[in-house]
Design goal:
Length: about 210
């Protein structure tokens, strides 16, 4: 007897979209709101960083990639990046999560990553080569383009945090959109204490997002 057709529990059967808490019924609207909220959460995380747990054994045993030459750092980063790619813990948002995580690891090890230099196709092909062929060369080449020395701890003020957010290359939504989100809408998901990122304008009780 043939098994019943698989029903994806993460999808809304009416819209075919991922189930969501923002009432999105089109992919365009979901993508836009997701970009806005992810950007707001990034601001929160930059201003209120979480304490490292140190529960990734291999990374901990490697001293968090600290004390390495640039070449060694890139080599080990490529290896660990592939390992986390394989885990792929989330249905959506793995790429953004990895960028934030590895920027934190890199920063603590004295390096910084500028993801603005990485194109999706480049990352996909490099990740596929590592996963399917155990060829880390393309990932190393990709990281070689974006790894540089991090600013000293004492120089990481407001301007540095803004630059770091830019290096993470998060989308802030469609710059052509004229829509505005009520402040109450944003508070429902990011709280009252979120400071809007640069480019977010507070106007008459609404938050307008622009590139």
């Amino acid at each position: 007897m043939a098994s019943a057709e698989f029903v994806d529990p993460y999808l809304d059967p009416e819209t075919g979209l991922l189930r969501n808490k923002v009432g999105a019924r089109t992919q365009a609207y979901l993508d836009e709101v997701e970009a806005h909220l992810a950007s707001a959460r990034l601001v929160q995380l930059m201003d209120h960083p979480v304490k490292p747990t140190g529960d990734l054994d291999e990374l901990r045993e490697g001293n968090g990639l600290r004390g390495m030459s640039r070449e060694q750092f890139i080599d080990r980063l490529a290896y660990h990046y592939d390992e986390l790619n394989y885990v792929h813990p989330f249905r959506e948002g793995n790429g953004r999560t990895q960028r934030v995580f590895w920027n934190r690891v890199a920063r603590d090890a004295g390096w910084q990553l500028d993801w603005r230099e990485v194109h999706g196709e480049t990352n996909d092909q490099a990740s596929r080569a590592a996963s399917e062929q155990r060829d880390f060369g393309p990932l190393c080449e990709m990281f070689d383009q974006i790894v540089s020395k991090a600013a000293p701890q004492g120089d990481r003020g407001t301007a540095w945090r803004a630059a770091e957010r830019a290096r993470l290359s998060f989308s802030t939504g469609d710059s052509r959109s004229q829509s505005c989100r009520p402040v109450s809408f944003m508070r429902a998901f990011v709280g009252d204490w979120c400071v809007p990122p640069r480019g977010w304008l507070a106007r008459t009780g609404r938050v307008c997002v622009r590139q």
